[in-house]
Specification:
Arc Repressor Mutant, subunit A, 2 domains, phosphoprotein, WH-like_DNA-bd_sf, transcription
């Protein structure tokens, strides 16, 4: 990006918000920085003002910051939307990226690491904490010696529906089976893929060619 003029920081902890503000001011020299401490405040600001950059915390008092990502990107097509959070698990990470986040920074990185990643925005570098970049690579890097996993046709069907965002209950209704039966299929899928969350199951299945993301 050539320049960052308008910035929105969404963070509910005052001391962290001030730290982020100082980082942005020192590294990016914007003309204006707006702050919001709740989902509602941020939604109002996104409707009222255009921005070049948003730093969004996920754990807000009135909801998840993930809910802000898509509306922000829709309202600010050329802007960068970067998650700044303490959550380093796959579910938060891939949920944010699927919603349109352009970067993902961990607030417990060292200040030098955080600053380096944030300043890279001006050079066109996607801001990703090192541990997050490693997690992304792990999801798509081939694992040599990995045992071939075979899902039954029904397991593929329910995993496909889950990957499209349906709950287990709604997937069961669509397939004409009971919620209990559907939950049993998902338990078997988790065991076969050696995962613990829906996000991890979906990504691993896509990576292994078991489910078509389209």
């Amino acid at each position: 990006m050539d320049a960052i003029r308008q910035v929105l920081i969404v963070e509910d902890l005052p001391d962290v918000a001030q730290w982020l503000r100082d980082q942005v001011m020192n590294l990016l020299s914007p003309e204006r920085i707006e702050q919001a401490s709740t989902l509602l405040q941020a939604q109002e600001k996104i409707r009222e003002q255009a921005y070049d950059l948003a730093l969004i915390d996920l754990g807000l008092p009135d909801g998840s910051g993930v809910e802000l990502i898509r509306p922000f990107k829709e309202a600010n097509r050329e802007a960068m939307c970067v998650v700044t959070t303490i959550f380093d698990d796959a579910e938060h990470l891939f949920g944010s990226l699927r919603s349109g986040a352009d970067g993902y920074l961990l607030k417990d990185d060292t200040e030098a690491e955080f600053s380096d990643q944030l300043s890279g925005i001006l050079a066109g570098r996607p801001p990703l904490s090192a541990s997050i970049a490693r997690r992304l690579l792990e999801q798509f890097h081939p694992v040599f010696g990995e045992k071939e996993v075979t899902l039954t046709p029904r397991e593929k069907e329910i995993l496909t529906l889950i990957a499209k965002g349906l709950s287990v209950k709604h997937a069961a209704q669509k397939l004409g089976i009971s919620h209990y039966t559907a939950a049993g299929y998902m338990k078997d899928v988790y065991a076969k893929l050696q995962v613990n969350t829906r996000a991890e199951a979906t990504l691993k299945a896509i990576h292994m060619g078991l489910v078509n993301p389209s």
